[in-house]
Here is the input.
Amino acid sequence: MSRLRRLSRGGRLLVALAVGGALFGIATAVQADIPDAGVIHGCYGKAGTPYQGNLRVIDASKGAQCRFYENPLNWVQKGITGATGATGATGATGATGATGATGPTGATGATGASGASGIYMVQQQESDLVGGTGWSEAVHCHTGDIAIGGGLAYTGNQIDLDMTESYNDGMFNTNTTPDGTWVVVINVNNDINSSDGNFVYFQAVCRPGP
Here is the structure.
């Protein structure tokens, strides 16, 4: 005690600062473990006691516990995740980008299979026909093809004739199997002369056979 009385005012101030610094260091070391893994441990005074409602934080990792007149109260440092907010309004459409460069030309594809031959017409010219009835002309399709129709045409101004029959020769003879010949039968009402520029054309319409 006698030594403390001899300390000057400056000496007492230094001792007080040293003690205060040591206490601050201890408090800092204690608080270094608060919160404990994200959980803050505390105690609050029980109702009916002089400490009612008083709250203090303790360091449970250091063995600190609530006193007999206190109740424990723990809470997490981080709050729960809030509800997802409403979707925002759709933004304005961006400007159209520049047109990209033209890509290279692709390789030429394989040649497709040849299509089936289509329907065609065969025509035979006749002239210098003497007037009379029952004139017939047989028009032939290409070998292996089938005649499916026929008729006639003519040029000139002095032709007077009538077509009386037109039929497939095979169907006419066998009544079952068509062939590649079409027969046209006409009546010639006046002579037809090529010298006058008059011509008659007998025709057959054909399709690929069989």
Notes: The mean pLDDT is 82. The two ends are 140 Å apart (CA to CA). Helices lie at 2-6, 9-31, 169-174.
